[in-house]
Amino acid sequence: MSNMESPTFLRFQLGAQLRRVREEADVTTEQAAEVIEVSPSTMRRIEQGRVGIKGPALTALLNQYGVDDAELRETLLTMARSGKQRGWWAKYGDLPPTYRQYIGLESAADELQNFETIVVPGLLQTTEYSRAMMSEDAFQPSPEAIEQRVAARLERQKLIHTGNLRMVAVLDEAVLHRQIGGPTVMRPQLTALLDASKLWNVTIQVIPFREGAYASMLSSFAILNFAESAGVVYIEGLTGDLYAEGEDVRRCTVVFNSLRASALSATASAAMIKKIRDSEYQD
């Protein structure tokens, strides 16, 4: 399955298109929901790409919206059919739905711009670091669930090791000092960051403490960019994950570029990571 055929990506794109044509037709979410006999909340989930939609219901919506472009209708119907496929992450049954959606979008992306204030980005975490993180989940997942999530995270990392995804990670220096799992976990984790920084498709930059205040220092986020489609911003939240498009992507890109300007160069960042590893996490 190619990146652009990711079922989650197709559902997301289909939902975005449906929202666009609904708004152009001046139809409310409630009115659209009535047409296909679902609740407004389900209609919103369809437009967010969280759930799929069957052909007859999609056709009914397109008729209601006055979409008579035959090519557009067929494209959307094809997306609906393809969006029912199962991605590789389906074998990890315990993954939260919002996490599954993110994995699907990430699998379809060509570039990931990731800013983290507290923890190492998931695609750069070691097995032990990931396990230490997930073991502290307030909802206390079972040991089996933790291992499934760790395995899924390692599977995700193939994206960068195969070169299918370009990644630019900007980290606050605090990420390097926070002893998740203790020194025995942190030393190999920082070594893994140094190894990742040597990959042609990975850039890691650190914003040092001496930089003081900087843009978006209170909020981590990720920008997923696609070769043939508009980008998406992902923000993980305690009460729910947020996906943003359009102008929000442009604004977050401006912020991300500002963060990179505030950060050390990739070479200087690697030197800092090595210094902290060798001074704080000795064998």
What is the count of DSSP helices, taking H or I runs of 4+ residues?
Answer: 13
Element order: H for helix, E for strand = HHHHHHEHHHEHHEEEEHH
| Percentage of residues in helical conformation | 40-55%
* CATH H-level homologous superfamily name of the largest domain: Endonuclease Chain A
- Determine the CATH topology of the largest domain: Endonuclease, Chain A
**What is the CA-atom radius of gyration, in angstroms?**
21 Å
Structural class: alpha/beta
Give the biggest beta sheet: 6 strands, mixed
Strand content: 5-15%
- Would you count the extended β strands for me? 6
- End-to-end gap: 43 Å
Low-pLDDT sequence parts: none
The overall number of domains is 2
Strand order of the largest sheet: 3-2-1-4-5-6
CATH level 1 name of the largest domain: Alpha Beta
Question: How does this model look, in words?
Answer:
The chain has helices at residues 7-24, 29-35, 40-47, 55-65, 70-82, 97-108, 127-135, 143-156, 158-161, 174-177, 183-197, 247-262, 266-280; strands spanning 111-116, 166-172, 202-207, 221-226, 229-235, 242-244. The relative contact order is 0.12. Strands 3-2-1-4-5-6 form a six-stranded mixed sheet, sandwiched between helices. The mean pLDDT is 88. Helix 11 packs antiparallel against helix 13. It is α/β, with parallel strands linked by helices. This is Helix-turn-helix protein.
Protein topology:
Elements: H1 7-24, H2 29-35, H3 40-47, H4 55-65, H5 70-82, H6 97-108, E1 111-116, H7 127-135, H8 143-156, H9 158-161, E2 166-172, H10 174-177, H11 183-197, E3 202-207, E4 221-226, E5 229-235, E6 242-244, H12 247-262, H13 266-280
Parallel strand pairs: 1-2, 2-3
Antiparallel strand pairs: 1-4, 4-5, 5-6
Helix pairs in contact: 1-5, 1-6, 2-3, 4-5, 7-8, 11-13
